[in-house]
């Protein structure tokens, strides 16, 4: 037994030394990294930020990529076409979703709603009047947005000119929205409560 213990001790001692040396080496490596970080506090973070900055702007700017080629930056070609055609563009949602049908959709559902000849004629008249008025007001909004866009494109934007241009654009949009909502209001006078309820059901409201 003593001889056996004597044979095992020489093997155990080097292992303890190896473990100790490993711990010391790891400690020195950690200390070296800490010292390097203290002398170069932004080295790691700068590299991280650099890599982050390479990808992040692409993600952030993606929704606007290509819009710089628009004639009017705030309006797509489709939006300009809709404004000129007098289409609703969801401007009358407060009315539509609160039980005030729109002339365009009432005409689409004329059969299902059982419109009388007088109701159909009245709805058609409202629709045509709405489209004419909205088209005119849409052109005013396009012109106002074009003016606002040109202030920045031509580097003429200042506090006063900006306030004037944005107020003009907001007023034009307000008039357009009011017009669409007004025709929804008028539409209610042509329909029965039962027809309005059926309209809402058919439209999924």
Q: Which CATH architecture of the largest domain?
A: Up-down Bundle
Distance between the termini: 92 Å
Largest sheet: none
| Averaged pLDDT | 81
Task: Give the ordered list of helices and strands.
Answer: HHHHHHHHH
Helical element count? 9
Question: Helical amount among residues, as a percent range?
Answer: over 70%
The class by helix and strand makeup works out as mainly alpha
Shape: elongated
Q: Work out the strand percent.
A: under 5%
Count of extended strands? 0
Radius of gyration over C-alpha positions, nearest whole angstrom:
36 Å
How many domains, as an integer? 2
Give the class-level CATH name of the largest domain: Mainly Alpha
Which regions are unreliable across 5 or more consecutive residues at pLDDT < 50?
Answer: 1-55
CATH topology grouping of the largest domain = Four Helix Bundle (Hemerythrin (Met), subunit A)
């Amino acid at each position: 037994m003593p001889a056996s213990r004597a044979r095992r001790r020489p093997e155990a001692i080097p292992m303890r030394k190896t473990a100790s040396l490993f711990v010391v080496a790891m400690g020195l490596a950690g200390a070296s990294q800490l010292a390097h970080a203290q002398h170069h506090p932004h080295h790691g973070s700068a590299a991280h930020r650099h890599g982050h900055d390479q990808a992040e702007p692409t993600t952030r700017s993606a929704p606007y990529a290509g819009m710089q080629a628009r004639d009017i930056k705030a309006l797509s070609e489709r939006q300009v076409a809709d404004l000129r055609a007098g289409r609703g563009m969801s401007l009358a949602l407060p009315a539509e979703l609160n039980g005030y049908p729109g002339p365009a959709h009432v005409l689409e559902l004329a059969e299902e709603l059982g419109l009388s000849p007088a109701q159909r004629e009245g709805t058609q008249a409202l629709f045509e009047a709405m489209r004419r008025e909205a088209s005119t007001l849409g052109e005013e909004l396009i012109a106002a947005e074009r003016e606002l866009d040109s202030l920045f494109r031509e580097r003429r934007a200042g506090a006063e000119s900006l306030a004037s241009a944005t107020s003009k654009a907001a007023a034009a949009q307000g008039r357009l929205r009011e017009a669409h909502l007004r025709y929804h209001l008028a539409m209610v006078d042509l329909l029965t409560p039962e027809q309005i309820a059926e309209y809402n059901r058919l439209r999924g409201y």
